[in-house]
Structure formats: structure tokens, C-alpha cells
């Protein structure tokens, strides 16, 4: 199984900050990586696929990068609506595995 | 707009079989462009992919759950289902159904149901 490790587990930031979340795969997954945002009591919301392509309707302050084993999700200027938990997901083969999540908190 | 809705018992006794159904609207499970997936999330924890159904009838499952999982589809009702046998308290979780966009054999999940809590307890 391919393991996905996110860091940090928790991130405290303020509105307007630029933040970066890291996701590392246990083996190369090319650019087969997606990102999701989840708020308490809600289903995950799909943000990014193929490491860097934004889903339609996702604000441009979100961006993704990386390939191989190391990936990042960056939010260029945090908005109040962005405080949530973020998950990466690899889809390099028939299965899917998620990172453990990064909780983005208000400082 | 695609919508997915999970349904099924919220309480299952240990050693029994957990059965859930996902009803899809605004799209067809007969489409070759999508896989139809089950994903779960224990309280306060991360997401775990369980398995998927494809319109041809083929299925794939997580290796860790494979022996206990059955996933099937009913195109006439535009539904797909999950059966998880021999459940224990460790299977207590919110269960989501989700649409997976086909990328070869791969998929990411663009639409999700709202989730349903299943508790395993006597």
C-alpha cells in the first residue's frame, strides 16, 4: 500500500496569511494527487486533481504543486471560510489512500 | 448537478453485516466515465477508501477490508450498495458514497454524499 503523510497535523494561522501544507507519498505517484477540504460534520469538498489543477469553482488563492513523492497545497491569502481540515489523496493505481489530514486553525 | 445520498441502518450489532445503499441523482451509474465508491471516516479520524463499483460490474476493494466487503450496483434504480460482514466496533464510522472520475484505472472523488453514521454496538 502507498502511505500518505501530511505535515503539519495542525496549523495555526490568521486571515490574510499565506499557508502551505505538505503531503509526502511513500513511493512515487507521479502527479496522481488530489486535495480535499472538510469542515466539521460535512463531507469532503474536492479542490485539486493531478497535483495542481483546480476544480471548477475553487478560488484561485488555492494552488497545488509537486510530483513524485512530495506535494504542497498553498493558500495564498487565508479567508475565514478556509479554516478547515485538508486531506491529500493518492490515486496512482486502482486504490486510493488519504493523508491523515491537516487541521487549519485560526490563530 | 450530481447528488449522492446514503441510506441504511444507523446501528448494527457486532458480527452482523453492515448494509448501505447510495442513490445517485443527476447522473447515471451506467456511465463509463465514473467509478462509484464507498469511503468511511471514524469519528475524529481520517478518510479510508473501502472500494468501488464500475458499470461493467467490476469491483475493487481495499486490501485491508477485501475479505469482508461486497459492493454491487443496480442500474435500474441508479443505486450502488455496500455490504461489510463480521463488523466490530472498529467499523463504527461515517460512511460516504462518492463518485470517482475515471483516469485509466485511477480515480479521484469529485462528488460526495452527505455521509451516514453507522454505529456497531449491541
Strand content of chain A: over 45%
Would you identify the regions of chain A where 5 or more consecutive residues have pLDDT less than 50? none
The H-and-E topology of chain B, N to C, reads as EEEEEEEEEEE
Assembly status: heterodimer
Beta-strand share of residues of chain B:
over 45%
State the helix count of chain A. 0
- Please summarize the sheet with the most strands of chain B: 7 strands, mixed
Report mean pLDDT of chain A, rounded to a whole number. 97
Rg over CA atoms of chain A: 13 Å
Number of helices of chain B: 0
Mean pLDDT of chain B: 96
Structural class determined from secondary elements of chain B:
mainly beta
| Range of helix content of chain A | under 10%
Shape of chain B: globular
Question: Biggest interface in this structure?
Answer: A-B, 24 and 25 residues
Distance between the termini of chain A: 36 Å
Number of strands of chain B: 11
How far apart the termini of chain B lie comes to 39 Å
The proportion of residues forming helix of chain B, as a percent range, comes to under 10%
Amino acid at each position: 500500500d502507498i502511505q500518505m503523510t501530511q505535515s503539519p497535523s495542525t496549523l495555526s494561522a490568521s486571515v490574510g496569511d499565506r499557508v502551505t501544507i505538505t503531503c509526502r507519498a511513500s513511493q512515487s505517484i507521479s502527479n496522481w494527487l488530489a486535495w480535499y477540504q472538510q469542515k466539521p460534520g460535512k463531507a469532503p469538498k474536492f479542490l485539486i486533481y493531478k497535483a495542481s489543477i483546480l476544480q471548477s469553482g475553487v478560488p484561485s488563492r488555492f494552488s497545488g504543486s509537486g510530483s513524485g513523492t512530495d506535494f504542497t497545497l498553498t493558500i495564498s491569502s487565508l479567508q475565514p471560510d478556509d479554516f478547515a481540515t485538508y486531506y491529500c489523496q493518492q490515486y496512482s493505481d486502482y486504490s486510493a489512500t488519504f493523508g491523515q489530514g491537516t487541521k487549519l486553525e485560526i490563530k | 448537478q450530481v447528488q449522492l445520498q446514503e441510506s441504511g441502518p444507523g446501528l448494527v450489532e457486532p458480527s452482523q453485516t453492515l448494509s448501505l445503499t447510495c442513490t445517485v441523482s443527476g447522473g447515471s451509474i451506467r456511465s463509463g466515465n465514473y467509478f462509484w465508491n464507498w469511503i468511511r471516516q471514524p469519528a475524529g479520524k481520517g478518510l479510508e477508501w473501502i472500494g468501488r463499483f464500475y458499470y461493467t460490474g467490476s469491483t475493487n476493494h481495499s486490501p485491508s477490508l477485501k475479505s469482508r466487503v461486497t459492493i454491487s450496483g443496480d442500474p435500474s434504480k441508479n443505486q450502488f450498495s455496500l455490504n461489510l460482514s463480521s463488523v466490530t466496533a472498529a467499523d463504527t464510522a461515517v460512511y460516504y458514497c462518492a463518485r470517482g472520475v475515471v483516469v485509466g484505472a485511477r480515480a479521484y472523488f469529485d462528488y460526495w454524499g452527505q455521509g451516514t453514521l453507522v454505529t456497531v454496538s449491541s
